[in-house]
């Protein structure tokens, strides 16, 4: 019995470590299970991301001029990476009517900004628009955390939306 039980635990552990992440369904109580970010709207696979599930994504670093005018190094997950995880095609599949799709990003204070989908995919843009959670190796400030969008090269900071809670793909009419 005990052997079977440990085997079950081992298989569970293996599935959790190596299987596809069960996004937003860790089943753990407490802060680790708290949904920090939703990726939804017109996406084939909506995501509800916790700190734990976000940890599964490849990370990216970008250098950009911060609001104080200094260049800082921001770390996080590219918005394009999150869209691909939601199965939003950003390569050859991004054509025709899909070029009128946009990404609406909402913050805790209800501030909202949009990006066109092609702005966020490497097939169209060299610039990496980042959902940052760290600056110069430190956690973001309380007024920015848990996530702030960083848009390298953009002269105004209006789309550097802080305290992001939701990313939603929409179709233009
Ligand atoms: N959540 C949230 N993010 C936001 C804003 C806001 O009102 N709410 N303002 C934007 C604007 S207009 C600018 S210029 C930058 C910098 O804002 P600050 O000058 O108020 O720091 O943050 C952007 N991000
Ligand atoms: Mo602004």
Which tags fit this structure?
173 residues, alpha+beta, five-stranded mixed sheet, five-stranded antiparallel sheet, 3 helices, 31% strand, disordered N terminus, binds the ligand Nc1nc2c(c(=O)[nH]1)N[C@H]1C(S)=C(S)[C@@H](COP(=O)(O)O)O[C@H]1N2, binds molybdenum atom
Chart the SSEs and their pairings.
Blueprint: H1 2-18, E1 37-41, E2 47-49, H2 51-54, E3 60-65, E4 71-78, H3 79-85, E5 101-107, E6 112-116, E7 130-135, E8 138-139, E9 148-150, E10 164-171
Parallel strand pairs: 1-10
Antiparallel strand pairs: 1-2, 3-4, 4-7, 5-6, 5-10, 7-8, 7-9
The chain binds the ligand Nc1nc2c(c(=O)[nH]1)N[C@H]1C(S)=C(S)[C@@H](COP(=O)(O)O)O[C@H]1N2 and molybdenum atom.
Write a structural description.
This protein is α+β, with helices and mostly antiparallel strands and 173 residues long. The protein has 3 helices and 10 strands, in the order αββαββαββββββ. The chain has helices spanning 2-18, 51-54, 79-85; strands spanning 37-41, 47-49, 60-65, 71-78, 101-107, 112-116, 130-135, 138-139, 148-150, 164-171. The strands form 2 sheets. A 5-stranded mixed β-sheet has the order 2-1-10-5-6. Strands 3, 4, 7, 8 and 9 form a 5-stranded antiparallel β-sheet that branches. Strand 3 (60-65) and strand 4 (71-78) form a beta hairpin. The radius of gyration is 18 Å and the shape is globular. The N and C termini lie far apart (60 Å). Bound molecules: ligand MTE and molybdenum atom (MO). Residues 67, 107, 109, 111, 157-158, 160-163 line the site of ligand MTE.
């Amino acid at each position: 019995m005990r052997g079977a039980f440990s085997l079950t635990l081992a298989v569970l552990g293996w599935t959790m470590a190596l299987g596809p992440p069960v996004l937003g369904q860790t089943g753990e109580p407490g802060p680790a299970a708290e949904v920090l970010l939703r990726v939804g709207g017109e996406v084939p696979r909506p995501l509800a991301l916790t700190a734990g599930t976000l940890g599964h994504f490849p990370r990216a670093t970008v250098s950009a001029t911060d609001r104080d005018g200094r260049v800082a190094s921001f770390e996080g997950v590219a918005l394009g990476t999150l869209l691909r995880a939601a199965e939003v095609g950003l390569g050859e599949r991004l054509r025709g009517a899909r070029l009128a799709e946009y990404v609406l990003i909402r913050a805790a204070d209800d501030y909202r900004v949009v990006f066109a989908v092609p702005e966020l995919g490497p097939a169209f843009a060299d610039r990496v628009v980042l959902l940052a959670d760290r600056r110069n190796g430190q956690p973001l400030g309380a007024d920015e955390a848990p996530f702030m969008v960083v848009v390298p090269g953009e002269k105004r900071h209006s789309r550097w939306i802080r305290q992001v809670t939701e990313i939603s793909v929409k179709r233009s009419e």
